[in-house]
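Hey,
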Amino acid sequence: EPVYETLEGWNEDITSARSIKDLPLALKRYIAFIEKYTGVPVSIISVGPDREQTIVLKEFIPLLG
């Protein structure tokens, strides 16, 4: 049986955000919800298609092998 969660949205343009500090509070809460629900930390957020529109929250260490 599906479980639905309702989360607050945001209307701000986030394409110029370059750090977590630049993101709206509702988005920060959304990220925290995803981390808590999945048990996996969010490492990267993309706010647009360009390289500089990628916000690295936590360093990602890939598992090799």
